[in-house]
Amino acid sequence: MWDPGTQPFNSVITTFVFSVYIVSDSFGSNDHTSTSLSWTMALAGLLIALLAPVVGQWADRSGHRISTLKWLTWALALVSGCLFFVQARASYLLLGLVLLGLGTVISDVGSALYNGLLDEVAAGGKVGRISGFGWGLGYMGGIIALLVIYIAWIQPDVGWFGVTSANGMDIRVSMLFCAAWILLLTLPTFLILRDRPRTAGVPGTGLVGAYAQLGRSVAGLWRIHRGIVVFLIASALFRDGLNGVFQFGGPIAKQTFGFTSAQVLIFGIAANLVAGVSTIVFGLLDDRIGPRRVIIGSLIILIAIALAVFWLHDGGAKVFWVLGMAMCAFVGPAQSASRSYLARVCPQGMQGEVFGLYATTGKAVSFLAPLLFGLFITMGRLIGGGDNNQYWGILGIAVVLLAGLLAMIPVKDTAH
């Protein structure tokens, strides 16, 4: 329930609704708002890289993984609700970006702790299907949340409780809905799961001392579990590309293929549905053929589809519906299989720490997809001119996915 419970922060806030709202004309010029958003996400990525592994390590050693996750989840709900105060005015851009960046840090650090619990709740031989089921439920949660928001406030001129789009009120009320959703749906997680007692003989450590221990842990992983380090590097690359697919899918749909804002939201609902179903199905396949093969196969297909989006950019909305849905069918399985692989090879007692490193490495190169996306758009402008070169950015994402694919090839398969 934590997957679907926290999904609105990803699907509603950072992807299809609030992030589109914060870069709208109400907050300034397109270049200014987009650049400000990119710098905010870069700074958030840096903080996640610094915090995620040591928080995970501290939670492992102190025996407070569940309670730490609970407080982070409640903080995420609070930040989401505070987005209500971001009015559709340029003077509120900074507030919106600060809250969005803070929520991103909380969400990713919490996800690192949550992913580390996978081996505790999944019996042997079922890691893949449990990971896929959870991830798939997350997408389903995104579908329902997006549908409610669309029907209640985005689509009608006057929504529930008399809410209109004046001063961004329809978007702002949606943020209150997301906060309530996060609190209520994650409640079963914290009613059922309990902290395990700290392992006897393992000393606790403060967050400051955790950094020294982090260095020793990385060195130890390299000496004893070198394959984990190699996988962390590979996953950092391809996960950044996978995030780029969702992060920039909305702008490409709107600016290149002519979608309206409402159509982007409908596309987001369909995208979550396709991704959710495919992730659950591929979760079963994960246990049969192993997560490494699921990841490599998904990356190959995603690269091919990305190239098709570039070459067929003049095809209109129907083309993007087909290709976009095809991409969504393989993003989720690759993400789920990634955490499934790590859960299988993670040393006992190091789950929070290793998944903290997983979050850290994922953010260590999080600038790549946005950077290459922008660079390829600039290249397209230099080659073809004009102001609508958004579709060139998909090539930048394809490059990141290709780098992740090449880095994943030497990674050894794991027993499944």
TrEMBL record:
It is found in: Cell membrane. Residues 228-416 form the Major facilitator superfamily (MFS) profile domain. Gene3D superfamilies: MFS general substrate transporter like domains (1.20.1250.20). GO terms for molecular function: transmembrane transporter activity. PROSITE patterns: MFS. Keywords: Membrane, Transmembrane, Transmembrane helix, Transport. GO terms for cellular component: plasma membrane. Pfam families: ATG22. It comes from the Bacteria. Its main location: membrane. It is a multi-pass membrane protein. This is Major facilitator superfamily (MFS) profile domain-containing protein. It comes from Acidipropionibacterium acidipropionici.
